[in-house]
Amino acid sequence: MWKNDRFIVKTCFIILALLFWKGYYAFHITYQEQFQLFLLTSDYWIDKCLHPGGICEYAAEFLTQLFRNQWAGAIILTCVLLCVQALTYKLMPATRRKDWLYLSYLPAILSWCFLCDENNMLAGIIALVTTLAIALIPRSIQNAPLRWGCIILLTPFVYWIAGGIHWLFAVLTLIQELLLWKPYKKAVRIAGSLLFLCIAFLCPYITSFYLQYPVIRLMTGIGYYRYPTGIPLNGILACASVCLALLLSICLPPIKEKRKRIAKGMQIAALGILGWLGIYYACDWQKEKVMSYDHYTYTRQWDKIIRMAEKETPSTPLEVVCLNLALGKTGQLGERMFQFYQNGTGGLLPDFIRDFNSPLIVNEVYYHLGMINTSQRFTFEAMEAIPSFQKSARCYQRLAETNIINGDYAVAEKYLKALQHTLFYKEWANDALSYLHDEKKINAHPEWGRLRSYLYKEDFLFDESQKDIILGILLNSNPNNRMAFEYLLAYELLNKDINAFLRYYPLGKDMGYTQIPRSYQEALSYVWTQQHSSFKGMPWSISPVVQQEITEFARAYVHNPSNESFFKQHFEHTYWYYLLFR
User: Fold this and answer.
1) Contact predicate 332/353, CB 8 Å
2) Which of 187, 306, 478, 510 is the most buried (most CB within 10 A)?
């Protein structure tokens, strides 16, 4: 085994990375793609080149646009991590690198941890790879004055290409000058090292006079983190681990031949334990689950959302929002909504929150209901709230759709022409442009035409405290909007307003139902049993199963109304349990 340990460990690393990114953390990959708008234009390239680290940002964003495909994203991230490991290995002294080979995996693992946070950008790791690659150049120059001159020239170059991570370049050259190159006196080498650090400091300091960025951001990097404030700890640790690997490989003694197996085994074991612990604690599995619901909502894979909920009941408001939308789109909202966890009206139509995640998910609900202006507002607010001040291809696409439906063709054209310069939205944008000003073609579109028929006929002020009234107005605009009807009744049921439910229920008589949906039956039977001792004369067709179940529920409730655990065990998936215990 030990003869092929290097090949085996690298193969295992590749397989584990691919399995992790595609099998367990795939929706963090697609999440990154939707919060950028990478344009294949000269202006976009020039704009990126005008600030430190912009070139690495450009390269990272080019790769990130490929994350629309999860396998492509997993392969790209695995290759980037392998580059970090390989370059770290190359930086280690040639005489020691084989003995301490597995130290080179430490920066790759910490880079992996860095990428597990959805707000850490790929640009940070691309900048790390670029810096490590450039740090190899001075290593190949034996002549000290020539090498020093090269370092002095490369430091501002690294700063402009990679950004604030140029400090790593300065520290790596300092370590190599002090510990690897020893033809000059120690005082000379220390003076040279201090000179390199001064140049590294001057680069962002001088830049601050010309660019409108805080000095601290120019010092630490601009595009590594989605939020403009703060420095991600995992990023600092990844850079520090490169220096640590280099220092240990220089300072630790060579391993004797008879102890190499033990040393390699200990390195691999330590690497495996630290890697597992680091990645496990760096991951946020709850966010991954929410992202999966959002992804399937965005791509309209409604059946997958319902299957996910059937396997594991949604627990967060945004998951419930996506599930209820999937039930509504598949015509199952009235029938099955109480088979799943419900957290009140916030799981149906949540209030607006000032961030860039929640409004983008909630806009999908308003869009499919036919509340196009509200969908447009939520989408625009979500895009403008992106902390990194990026635009969003997903938002541009939705804003183009809403403006086409509303007939605002000049605005729609602005978004579509921008999408024409993207790699994956270009074809869709070209097709959408052919619909502009063509009313017949838009009205014949299977989605846009239907949503246009749902539009409100009169203007009014949107009041989040009166969503049921707004849904009622929407239904009145087009009585055939079955989804609006189901959301209206669901809202009243979740709000525990039985009287409002009874008032709106007759509006569904021409909706094409072959039988009354289960949740409506439960609400109607509850109302009936409050005033009658039997089901004789009941004006609604309630199934015998529901009649039997509510009889058992009522009998148990009369005898012991406080025994919630009993009711949860036997009646958790009914409206009666929601009404009385949630």
Assistant:
1) no
2) 306
Contacts of 338 (CB under 8 A, 6+ apart): 518, 519, 522, 573, 574, 575, 577, 578
Instruction: Label residue 1 by pLDDT band (50, 70, 90).
Output: very low
- C-alpha to C-alpha distance for 186 and 192, rounded to whole angstroms: 10
Q: Mean per-residue pLDDT for 322-327?
A: 96
- Side chain identity at residue 530, one-letter code: Q
Beta-carbon contacts of residue 277 (< 8 Å; ≥ 6 apart): none
The residues with which 225 forms a beta bridge, in sequence order, are 120
Best CA proximity match to 317, nearest among 285, 336, 341? 341
The residue behind tokens 């970090």 is 84
Torsion of CA 564, 569, 571, 575, to 10 degrees: 60
Q: What is the pTM of this model?
A: 0.92
Binning the chain into helix, strand and coil, the percentages to the nearest 5 are 70, 0, 30
- Residue (of 355, 430, 444, 439) closest to 397 by Cα position: 430
Q: Which of 224, 246, 247 is nearest to 236 (CA)?
A: 224
**Mind giving me the DSSP string for 272-337?**
HHHHHHHHHHH--HHHHHHHHHHHHHHTT-HHHHHHHHHHS---SHHHHHHHHHHHHHTT-HHHHG
pLDDT digits (tens, 9 = 90+) for 336-376: 999 999 989 999 999 988 889 999 999 999 999 999 999 99
* CA 419 – CA 427 distance, rounded (Å): 9
